[in-house]
Design brief:
With 223 residues, this protein is an alpha/beta fold. Helix content is 39%, strand content 13%. A 6-stranded parallel β-sheet has the order 3-2-1-4-5-6, with helices on both faces.
């Protein structure tokens, strides 16, 4: 007799420096698509592939709470494990985070790790990236002009992605191993670009949730 899996858990990681509408749209799209039991947000500690973050860990957590507190019909949880590792001067890798989440949820719960098209293009540089599929499904947003045939996408990643492509039903029925690309979700938003516009005092209200923009102004961030 088989074991019926629990409702799936969505995991969205990132620097969130700052959180923007692209993050919210990615989460909303997959919440609507998969009807998960929980949306889990994982703010990075100090990502090894990026320069030092400008907002503090607490400020980024605060902004996440403001961006996600009232926009979702499913429970939203902020998982600070990567921040805790950074406080202990320990490096954080996605493979470690997903291993911890898998250990917590058990082997049967479907876990869907969400990434943007830019992260998909960098996936081949991630630690033990092949093993990510043993721990979770991976759902990705597209962006204008993006394709799995893109010259900027590692061909091994593209091949793995196509071979593992799954339906919504397959993702909800298995704990890990499938991929799903949302081509209609074509936000072209860059946190780097947003920080640049904030420094130039340009209008970014359409790119940042209103409560987050108010928080940024109140705390004089990204000046």
């Amino acid at each position: 007799m088989g074991i019926t899996p629990r409702g799936c858990v969505l995991v969205l990681g990132g620097s969130f420096d700052p959180v923007h509408q692209g993050h919210v749209a990615l989460a909303q799209h997959f919440v609507t698509l998969l009807q998960p039991q929980e949306l889990r947000l994982v703010p990075a500690g100090q990502p090894w592939q990026k320069t030092r973050l400008l907002a503090t860990a607490q400020q980024r957590v605060d902004m996440l709470q403001l961006a996600f507190e009232s926009n979702f019909t499913v429970p939203v949880r902020i998982d600070q494990q990567e921040i805790r590792r950074a406080e202990q001067q320990e490096p954080s890798f996605t493979i470690d985070t997903l291993q911890n989440i898998r250990a917590e949820l058990g082997e049967y719960t479907p876990v869907v790790f969400l990434i943007g098209a830019d992260q998909l293009q960098n996936l081949s540089s991630w630690k033990n990236w092949h093993q990510l599929f043993e721990l979770a499904h991976i759902g990705a947003a597209s962006r204008p002009g993006f394709s799995l045939k893109s010259e900027n996408l590692d061909q091994e990643v593209a091949r793995e992605w196509r071979q593992r492509a799954g339906t919504v039903q397959e993702i909800r029925a298995a704990p890990a191993g499938k991929t799903y690309l949302a081509p209609e979700l074509n936000w072209d938003v860059s946190a780097t670009g947003i920080r640049h516009e904030l420094r130039q005092t340009k209008q970014t209200a359409s790119l940042i949730p209103p409560k987050v923009l108010d928080y940024i102004k109140q705390h004089h961030l990204y000046r």
